[in-house]
Amino acid sequence: MHSEHPVLNFLSQNLKHGKKKKKKKKKKKKKKKKKKKKKKKKKKKKKKKKKKKKKKKKKKKKKKKKKKKKKKKKKKKKKKKKKKKKKKKKKKKKKKNS
Q1: What distance in Å separates the CA atoms of residue 43 and residue 27, rounded to the nearest whole number?
Q2: Model confidence pLDDT, tens digit, residues 12-54
Q3: What is the pTM of this model?
């Protein structure tokens, strides 16, 4: 029965030390709350990065330029037909001189 007494004494000492540690933890929690307020300020900086999405408007202007290039190709085909007619006229002049 005497062996149980030192075990009870050991448990009672641990409970006393545990109460002192709980008081120290409450002081640490107050310091952590101040750090959380600083993290909220960093979230405001992320909203400024969303304003850079205005670059998508430049892509719409490029589509309009492609439509103009298709019209230029049709004009080049008409010029090629006129050059062929001029070559035929030159051949007729050579036959008259001979």
Answers
A1: 27
A2: 665 655 555 556 666 666 666 666 666 666 666 666 666 666 6
A3: 0.12
